[in-house]
């Protein structure tokens, strides 16, 4: 049971980072289905940074920068050019997938998979290692859980959070009060990319210290489902991520059961949970009112 819980926490960390990014972006009024591509960028550039420097910490920093950079493209298309945010996010997913796949060849001289690089150490302080469920966990898990409560405090207990929520609910009213709608949305979308990039790093050098084509495997979309499941709130989103991560961890454990079922059945468990969540079985959820709506200054 301890191994299952520890595995759930490890699998939840990448989802939590990306889902928190989605919360910030959509709370400001910008739909970001490009989280998948931003996680891909984070996963690849974390490995690249660790490969070139030998430091997983520098790899993590590069992953955050890469995620933020591609998110800035989404912000420009969505905010300045008022492009369809779904199409923009989809384009980013396709671009990130192709770019990472292309760069593997000239950099690592292989096809479809990078070399194994130095991953993040599992060196937690001694008093944490003595807690059974925390054995085998790394700093990504701790950071993800801390960021959940920091994000919740920022969004619901600070003036900054109030501005973000105002921009996502009624941007014209926020503009009237002197809030720079464009600036807030830019910052939140870029922050979402940075968090998704961190999620990608947690998936690659935090769990499997390499990058291979398809390793993100829809986790960006699962993070979006977790955000909806959690009603666009950090703590609720965290529990949703835990549920989906439990599905992933359980399918790994369940394959060792004596029950004669195809492996594909077990592998589908987290995606079945995602579809159930998106189908509305989690109860009523309510997105920010201006979510997905481009803002034009001066319009009412």
What is the arithmetic mean of pLDDT?
Answer: 89
Provide the β-strand percentage band: under 5%
User: Per CATH, which architecture?
Assistant: Orthogonal Bundle
SSE order in H/E notation? HHHHHHHHHHHHH
Describe this structure in words.
- The protein is mainly alpha-helical.
- The protein has a single domain, classed as ABC transporter involved in vitamin B12 uptake, BtuC.
- It has 13 helices and no strands.
- It is a multi-pass membrane protein.
Which structural traits does this protein have?
mainly alpha; single chain; ABC transporter involved in vitamin B12 uptake, BtuC; 0% strand; 13 helices; transmembrane; 300 residues
What's a concise summary of this model?
The chain crosses the membrane at residues 6-24, 31-51, 57-79, 86-108, 137-156, 186-208, 214-232, 239-259, 265-283. With 300 residues, the chain is mainly α.
Task: List the topology elements.
Blueprint: H1 2-27, H2 35-53, H3 56-80, H4 85-108, H5 126-129, H6 139-157, H7 159-169, H8 171-176, H9 181-204, H10 219-229, H11 234-254, H12 263-267, H13 269-278
Helix pairs in contact: 1-6, 1-9, 1-10, 1-11, 2-3, 2-4, 2-9, 2-10, 3-4, 3-9, 6-7, 10-11, 10-13, 11-13
């Amino acid at each position: 049971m301890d191994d299952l819980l520890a595995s759930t926490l490890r699998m939840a960390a990448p989802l939590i980072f990306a889902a928190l990014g989605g919360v910030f972006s959509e709370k400001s009024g910008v739909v970001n289905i490009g989280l998948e591509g931003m996680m891909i960028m984070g996963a690849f550039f974390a490995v690249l940074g660790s490969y070139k420097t030998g430091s997983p910490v520098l790899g993590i920093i590069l992953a955050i920068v890469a995620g933020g950079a591609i998110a800035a493209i989404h912000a420009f298309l969505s905010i300045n050019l008022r492009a369809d945010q779904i199409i923009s996010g989809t384009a980013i997913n396709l671009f990130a997938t192709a770019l990472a796949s292309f760069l593997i060849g000239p950099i690592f001289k292989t096809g479809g998979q990078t070399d194994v690089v130095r991953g993040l150490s599992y060196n937690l302080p001694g008093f944490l290692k003595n807690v059974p469920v925390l054995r085998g966990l790394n700093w990504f898990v701790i950071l993800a859980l801390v960021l959940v409560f920091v994000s919740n405090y920022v969004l619901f207990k600070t003036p900054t959070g109030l501005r973000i929520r105002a921009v996502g609910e009624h941007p014209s009213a926020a503009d009237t009060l002197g809030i720079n709608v464009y600036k807030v949305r830019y910052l939140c979308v870029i922050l979402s990319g940075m968090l998704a990039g961190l999620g990608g790093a947690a998936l690659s050098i935090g769990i499997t210290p390499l990058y291979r084509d398809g390793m993100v495997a829809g986790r960006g979309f699962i993070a979006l489902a977790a955000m909806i499941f959690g009603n666009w709130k950090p703590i609720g989103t965290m529990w949703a991520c835990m549920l989906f991560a439990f599905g992933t961890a359980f399918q790994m454990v369940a394959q060792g059961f004596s029950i004669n079922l195809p492996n594909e059945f077990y592998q589908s468990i987290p995606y079945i949970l995602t579809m159930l969540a998106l189908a509305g079985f989690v109860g009523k959820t309510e997105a920010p009112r201006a979510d997905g709506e481009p803002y034009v200054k001066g319009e009412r």
